[in-house]
Write a structure and sequence with these properties.
The chain has helices spanning 3-30, 34-42, 49-57, 73-80, 96-104, 124-135, 138-143, 145-157, 167-172, 174-183, 191-201, 211-237, 243-249, 259-290, 292-300, 305-315, 347-350, 386-403; strands spanning 62-63, 67-70, 85-86, 165-166, 322-326, 330-332, 335-337, 342-345, 408-409, 414-415, 424-426, 428-430. The chain has 433 residues and is an alpha+beta fold. It has one domain (3-430): Cytochrome P450 (Cytochrome p450, Orthogonal Bundle), CATH 1.10.630. Strands 1-2-8-5-3 form a five-stranded mixed sheet. Helix 6 (124-135) packs across helix 13. Bound molecules: protoporphyrin IX containing FE (HEM). Protoporphyrin IX containing FE binds next to helix 14 and helix 18. Belongs to the cytochrome P450 family.
Length: 433
């Protein structure tokens, strides 16, 4: 393919996948459509609780231009466990959009393109997920606990309390990616490369990307794909004590994962760890510094740190919402949903449902049912990294507040402009007492 043709295809992919949906959503938001409003208002970093209440007041399943949305906890769970509602990416039909999408499609490992676990459905999803969960066991995650603590300690050692620091850059981002490097068996000499690739590929989980970010993501994903091909070959020849090596040899009824599935899992694990756990840590630091009484409670009752992580996930979840496409006639909360309709489950809003959480807007680390949040989703696509994220969240937050008890935020904190993924881009902090 010539360079010019490649460039045109890239532009078409961006137009169909990002520019067009963004324009449509903005237009719909201006007309008051709830789906458009939530997507547009999310990118401003604004407090969305008023909008969540508005959606909830419109009933269990509120109508939108393209389907339905919900802010209710029970309905979110119903959507995510319904077999008729599937995770496939938007289809563009047999018309001109569909033809352009097919012509410009690119065969590259991408966290939200098949065969990524996130977007495949049974029976492929069942077989594939079984193999991955065989390796991502509770025991395997527990074995990473000590190493995660050591990584957190090393990162904290390198912080100089005499100077203000941006904790996103120096701590929240580095902790998860170093843990992921262990999981993927990345040799020390490749760590910096993987770190840079992960950072640049992270926005791939979002929608409505700008042309510049989209191009950067695509180039990075190609480089990551090439690196993974070499890395998988190296692990095959010389397996190590890491989860990716175990995944290469995992078998179910005699069959294992294909190379594409292996690469896709590695890519998803990298992007998910980069873009979600960093937000859990950043959102947690922000919430705890703004609520000193809660920090005091944790100081006197450190056994509550695990619960505090769930309360952070409930109040300020890293993933705002997820969507499903209806594949056949079904009902949700007794309301008919038709094939082709798009249904969004607003996870962050369900976490504030007063039917489930008393005084839902209060941040309370002693809350007994904090763990009932839906920040990791539900049903067959329930987050595979939930246990790992909880463990990293607990170690990451507890360690920094124990090491720097006088930690306080400085002006200049800034939230990311991403729509689906919610967290801080910068968190300037003083570590001095
Ligand atoms: C605080 C951190 C995290 C949050 C809030 C989070 C959230 C989520 C959510 C909401 C889903 C379901 C999406 C949907 O139903 O459409 C999901 C799926 C997934 N997550 Fe996470 N995640 C986190 C960390 C991680 C980590 C560290 C990993 C890496 C091991 C990971 C790997 C995955 C995978 C592989 C899936 C797809 C599972 C499937 O489709 O079967 N996540 N995550």
């Amino acid at each position: 393919m010539s360079l010019a043709e490649e460039h045109v295809k890239t532009a078409v992919r961006w137009s169909i996948g990002h520019a067009l949906p963004r324009t449509v959503l903005r237009m719909q938001a201006r007309r008051g459509d709830l789906q458009g409003r939530i997507t547009v208002e999310a990118s401003t970093g604004a407090d969305l609780t008023g909008l969540f209440d508005e959606i909830r007041a419109r009933g269990p399943l509120a109508a939108t231009k393209v389907g339905h949305t919900t802010a209710r906890h029970a309905v979110v769970r119903e959507i995510l466990t319904n077999d008729a509602l599937v995770t496939t990416r938007p289809r563009y039909g047999a018309g001109i959009l569909g033809k352009l999408a097919a012509w410009s499609a690119r065969d590259i490992t991408h966290p939200v393109q098949p065969p990524s676990l996130l977007v495949v459905e049974p029976p492929q999803h069942t077989r594939y997920r079984k193999l991955v969960t065989r390796v991502f066991t509770a025991r395997a995650v527990e074995q990473l606990r000590e190493r995660t603590q050591a990584i957190a300690d090393e990162l904290l050692d390198s912080l100089d309390p005499a100077n203000p620091v941006d904790l996103i850059e120096t701590y929240c981002g580095l902790l998860p990616v170093t843990v992921i490097s262990e999981i993927l068996g990345v040799p020390p000499e490749d760590r910096a490369t993987v770190l840079a690739l992960g950072g640049a590929a992270a926005p791939s989980l979002d929608l409505g990307l700008s042309w510049r970010v989209f191009r950067n993501v695509e180039t990075t994903l190609s480089t990551f794909d090439a690196w993974l091909t070499r890395h998988l070959d190296a692990l095959r020849a010389n397996p190590g004590d890491n989860l990716l090596s175990r995944l290469i040899t995992a078998r179910e009824d005699g069959a294992g994962l294909t190379d594409r599935e292996l690469k896709s899992t590695a890519g998803l694990v990298l992007a998910a760890g980069f873009e979600t756990t960093v937000n859990l840590l950043g959102n947690g630091i922000s919430l705890l510094t703004r609520n000193p009484a809660q920090l005091e409670t944790l100081r006197s009752r450190p056994e509550l740190w695990g619960n505090a992580v769930d309360e952070v996930l409930r109040v300020d979840p890293p993933v705002l919402m997820t969507g499903r496409m209806c594949s056949r006639d079904t009902t949700i909360a007794g309301i008919p949903v038709r094939p082709g309709q798009f249904v969004t489950a607003v996870l962050a809003a369900a976490n504030r449902d007063p039917e489930v959480f008393a005084d839902p807007h209060a941040f309370d680390v002693t809350r007994e049912n904090a763990r009932d949040h839906v920040s990791f989703g539900a049903g067959r696509h329930y987050c595979l990294g939930a246990q790992l994220a909880r463990m990293e969240g607990e170690i990451g937050l507890r360690s920094i507040f124990e090491r720097f008890p006088g930690l306080r935020p400085l002006p200049g904190a800034h939230r990311r402009p991403t729509r689906i993924l919610r967290g801080f881009e910068r968190l300037p902090t003083s570590l001095r007492s």
